[in-house]
Every structure is written in C-alpha cells, then in structure tokens.
Amino acid sequence: MIADAIIVAGGRASRLGGIDKASVNVGDSTLLDLALSATAGCREVCVVGPPRMLPEGVISTQEEPPFSGPVAAVAAGAGALPGGSDAVLVLACDMPFASEAVAQLYVRLESCVQADGVWGVDEDGREQPLLALYRTRALERALAGVRPAGASMRELTAGLRMVDVTVLRAAQDADTWNDVNRLRKEWG
To answer: How far from chain centre, in Å, is Cα 144?
Structure first.
C-alpha cells in the first residue's frame, strides 16, 4: 500500500501558553520530530502549520486562513501532496507515541477492504481522527463535502466507514503542560 502523510502542526496551543507545540521536547526529540519518525514508511510527507525548518523532501504548507482548524489543515495538506497514493496517514503532531500505532493501522486497513479508513481508539473508546489512515479517495470525498475552515474532524468523518484500532498510549496527546509532563515521564 502506497501512503502519503499529513502532520497537523498548526494549532494555537493556547493551553500551553501559545508556544509552538511542535517544538516541545519529549525525551530527546521534539513532538514534530517524533511525528515525522512515525511517517517513516510514507512516500510523501506534508507538515501543515507555520513555516519552520523541516528535513529535506518534507512538504510544508499552512491552512487558510491560519489557525482555522484541523479540517482546514488536512485539506491544505491533501492539496499539497502530489496525489496517486492509496492512503493518507493523518497525524496530530502532539502524539509522541503515534509510531507505536502506525503498523497496526496499515494492517487493519489492508484487511478491511470495505472501510474508508481506520483510526486509533484510546482505552476509553474515543476515536482519534488525527491518528488515522484514510483511503485517499474517501478522504478526498469527505473533504469535498465540508467547508474546511472551522469544520470539526467529526463533521469530516461523519459519512466515512471507519474501523476502530485500539492503540492505548499511542492516542495520548500533549494539550496541556500536565499532559506534556506525564508523557515525558512515560517516555523516560
């Protein structure tokens, strides 16, 4: 399966005091570096957010208008990718353990031929649409059916046939400093 990736890295991080969340360290790496490592098997990778230094070959773009939400970021990333992939891995940059789930997502999507995608589900049963592998055509159809700026990921995925993959700690994200400190302890 040929997959591209979109890393959503453009939020305001207001609960972290407005810093660039992607630059926060967990272990010896930034959250963005950890997200990039989770996309290692992808053909093309696009980081959506403010301009920043990225490894050579990684595509950079920003949602329009800036800070208009994750669906706008996914739409911008999808528009920046060259196309021709079977699937698109969509990751929030603030999930340092996401790489633990990526192989599971691929295996599950390949075994569920009728599914439009698969997403990580945490231990409380919450779906994580920003830790997901979508079939490219299904994601394109879903994006065509919403107005990206301000739309929620729930709106985007409402009409998709998604399959759950229990991923436990891979779904943990860094929204607050308490989250960051907890993730740093787990990483340690």
So the answer is: 19
**Whether 48 contacts 63, CB under 8 Å:** yes
Q: Is the peptide bond before 65 cis (omega within 30 degrees of 0)?
A: yes
**pLDDT beneath 70: ranges in the chain:** 12-14, 16-18
Q: Tell me the domains of the chain and their CATH numbers.
A: 3-187 (3.90.550.10)
User: How much is the pLDDT for 169?
Assistant: 84
Q: Are the C-beta atoms of residues 97 and 134 closer than 8 Å to each other?
A: no
Which are the contacts of 160, defined by CB distance < 8 A and separation ≥ 6?
116, 117, 134, 138, 142
Q: What is the dihedral of CA 95, 164, 151, 65, to 10 degrees?
A: 40
